[in-house]
Amino acid sequence: MKMFLRLSFNHLKIKKLRTCLTISGIVIGVMSLVIMISIGIGYKTAVLSELKKNNPGVDIYVTSQDNRRKDRIITDKTIEKISKLEDVQQVFPMLDGSGTMELNGYGYYGPIYGVTREYMEDLGLSEGELPCSNGSRPEILCGGGFKQALFSSTKSIKYKDSTAGKEPQVGKRFTYESQYKLSISGITADPYDYDLYTDIDTLKMFLKRQMVDGCVPGQPKDKDDKPYPMWVYDSLIVRVDTVENAKRVSNAINEMGFMVDSNIEIIEDTENMITKVQIILAVIGTVAAVVAIIGIVNTMVTAVYDRIKEIGLLKMIGSDSDDIVFMFLFESGLLGAIGGVIGVLLSFLLSLILNPRLAKIMSLSKESRIIGINWKIVLGAIVVTIIVSILAGIFPSRFAVKVKPLEAIN
């Protein structure tokens, strides 16, 4: 057995160029397959993690179908009822205090959403702090992109392009409905968030002080044109942990008579799209791996032709077919092992170099690993490469066994 191992090593040393070219082909094939599979896995994980970071669960948006019907309005009783549904994690009421806002001569008309502190904490802060529940005038938490919503018709520019827009915004004051001064307490971390938020309890008290004829601004009336005796919320955000549970909860809320919308379709469409990309990448990597396998077969066939006399001599001194088969399978397996290990190491090195750059290009967080190489991929790539290399050496080895000793040495 030792003799055949030495013969295999010596042959690989003698044919250095052929050996190096074969190993290079295996390395390229392994790298292609590992990188392609890892990109598919890493990209899917990174994108879904980013979605979950912005939305820790699946959010279901609940609105009323008819505000003039008492059984279709959203009140505290509705919140209590939905909260008791199975798999519901959190329920966030939203109260709309729409109005005209002005900041340094730049105007905006839109909602100020009264929400709970827990909801605002999930939004994240880039600067400042969350609005407090002070029972007085609301403090405003501005979306990270609110500067783009403010516009000056006289100057014909957006607030973000103005000199004032480049200054720190925390502490500045909006003019609400041309008479109230509302201070900016903080800015959210999302640059595409153009909304304004405040503490919901403070907004309730603020709106009550603006009552006209017993009606709170923005609150709906019943079919008799009378205000409801309880607070009516504009919408609810119901947070569920998984897509499957969200579908079930959505159906239950819909059966209560409310309209539902969610980000389920976004998550499912994202997963389907990434799965298709994974398949394409895997096919590309497999093609490169097949080319490497063909290279191994070619190398081993050539090795048989080059060593016909050697095979004949081995048979004449008593070597049996199993020994000769072992010698060639060992060579092909060794080539696969060397190429597999080098390919995996280079793939890992390439991932360290490219991951930060790919994350930046795709606007993902710095810790995102687009090329998600893990130990299962590493171990699987090496084992599969060795097995496939051995299989690739079966045909040449069987051909070597059929060599007749007398014909080989002539």
Note down, in words, how this protein is organized.
The strands form two sheets. Strands 1, 2, 3, 4, 5, 6, 7, 10, 11, 12, 13 and 14 form a twelve-stranded mixed beta sheet that branches. Strands 8-9 form a two-stranded antiparallel ribbon. The chain is an alpha+beta fold and about 400 residues long. It has helices at about 1-15, 15-55, 75-85, 115-125, 200-210, 245-255, 265-305, 310-315, 320-360, 375-390, 395-400, 405-410; strands spanning about 60-65, 90-95, 100-105, 105-110, 110-115, 125-130, 140, 150, 155-160, 175, 180-190, 195-200, 235-240, 260.
Write the layout of secondary structure elements.
Elements (H helix, E strand, L loop, with lengths): L1 H13 L1 H39 L3 E7 L11 H8 L4 E9 L2 E5 L2 E5 L1 E4 L1 H7 L1 E4 L11 E3 L8 E2 L4 E2 L14 E4 L3 E9 L7 E4 H9 L26 E6 L2 H13 L2 E5 L1 H43 L1 H9 L4 H41 L13 H18 L1 H8 L3 H5 L1
Parallel strand pairs: 5-12, 7-11
Antiparallel strand pairs: 1-13, 1-14, 2-5, 2-13, 3-4, 3-10, 6-11, 7-12, 8-9, 10-11
Helix pairs in contact: 1-9, 2-7, 2-9, 2-10, 7-9, 7-11, 9-10, 9-11
